[in-house]
Amino acid sequence: MGKESGWGSGRAAVAAVVGGVVAVGTVPVALGAMGFTSVGIAASSLAAKMMSTAAIANGGGVAAGSLVAILQSVGAAGLSVTSKVILGFAGTALGAWLGSPPSS
């Protein structure tokens, strides 16, 4: 019984680390795939469609602080340290939860 509980907590720890790394590493890749790149919004991408919709809804411009503006900022400059910590914490918690043994 001791070995099983030790492996369960070890598996949860590994899953927590993997979850944190994946959460922080996936966001920039996903944003790039959507079209939020370091050189601007890619033409004919989901990001371009979002920007067009936001601009039309806002009377011709994208509002500062809007979702599109924030995603473009992250795509261009990367995640801030605070964002990395928050994403890492959330990914770690989710990974630990998914990697923990089922309760009896």
From TrEMBL:
Swiss-Prot/TrEMBL GO biological process terms: intrinsic apoptotic signaling pathway; release of cytochrome c from mitochondria
Q: Answer yes or no on keyword Flavoprotein.
A: no
Instruction: Tell me the membrane topology, using the record's own terms.
Output: Multi-pass membrane protein
Predominant cellular place of this UniProt entry's protein: membrane
Question: Could you list the residue ranges that cross the membrane?
Answer: 12-43, 55-75, 81-99
**Which InterPro entries does this chain map to?**
IFI6/IFI27-like, IFI6/IFI27-like_sf
Give the subcellular location: Membrane
Q: Which domain of life is it from?
A: Eukaryota
Q: Which GO terms describe its cellular component?
A: mitochondrial membrane
Keywords carried by this UniProt record: Apoptosis, Membrane, Transmembrane, Transmembrane helix
Reply yes or no: does the keyword Chloroplast apply: no
Q: Which family does it belong to?
A: Belongs to the IFI6/IFI27 family.
This protein's name: IFI27L1 isoform 2
Provide the species name.
Answer: Pongo abelii (Sumatran orangutan)
Q: Which gene encodes it?
A: IFI27L1
